[in-house]
Write a structure and sequence with these properties.
The protein is about 25% helix and about 25% strand. The chain has about 200 residues and is an alpha+beta fold. The longest helix has about 35 residues. The radius of gyration is 23 Å and the shape is globular.
């Protein structure tokens, strides 16, 4: 009889243990997914996050997994460097129902682009044919400063990227054929600003 009670108690203890192990596995997978999606070991400058080993042959397994998960086209560093942000300059999450002004000056590369990625890390599902803007679309002023709009509705003028149906979205900046200085020192890059203009009806939704 005592032996039977011992077996029942061992079984009772095994249930919570298995539950704890299961929760630990789920938490571990969740944290691994988050790290792969949002990056590990990178740098953040002016809210733009980048990793110097993205696309490199010596990239760590986490970085390679992140590239595979997010679908980032990872050329090597001499061909392109990549930066991503999901907040505006105030630190608020980028949202599809808001309008944003993206502005900056000359960037250290032969060409650059800014692309909207939806909450699921894919391009937004809309037919606006305006998922990005690039160096050929902006119109710099006499001082070399330019601005563009990211919003759910097309503005009256200027370069534009559509955030319609993007949910809480991200922006990806690609600088192609970057200078050696930019490749080696991300802090030297004059990153574009992202300022929220308004949200809701004023954003054209």
């Amino acid at each position: 009889m005592a032996r039977g009670r011992h077996k029942r108690r061992a079984g009772a203890r095994r249930g919570p243990l298995l539950l704890a192990i299961g929760l630990g596995v789920v938490a571990g997978l969740g944290s691994a997914w988050w790290v792969m999606k949002h990056g590990s070991g990178g740098e953040v400058h002016a809210h733009w996050a980048g990793n110097r080993v993205t696309g490199a042959t010596d990239a760590d397994p986490w970085t390679r997994a992140q590239v595979a998960l997010t679908g980032l086209l990872a050329l090597n560093r001499s061909q392109a460097i990549y930066f991503r942000r999901d907040v505006d300059d105030s630190g608020a999450r980028l949202r599809a129902d808001c309008r944003y002004r993206v502005s900056g000056g000359a960037l250290p590369g032969r060409w650059w682009s800014v692309t909207v990625y939806a909450a699921d890390d894919y391009l937004p599902l809309n037919d606006d044919d305006a998922l990005s803007f690039d160096a050929t679309e902006v119109r710099p002023d006499a001082k070399g400063r330019w601005s563009a709009t990211v919003s759910p509705a097309k503005p009256g003028e200027g370069a534009w990227a559509s955030s319609r149906n993007a949910g809480n979205f991200d922006l990806t900046l690609r600088i192609y054929n970057p200078s050696l200085k930019a490749q080696g020192d991300f802090a030297s890059i004059p990153f574009p600003k992202v300022e929220r203009i308004d949200c809701g009806k004023g954003a054209g939704t």
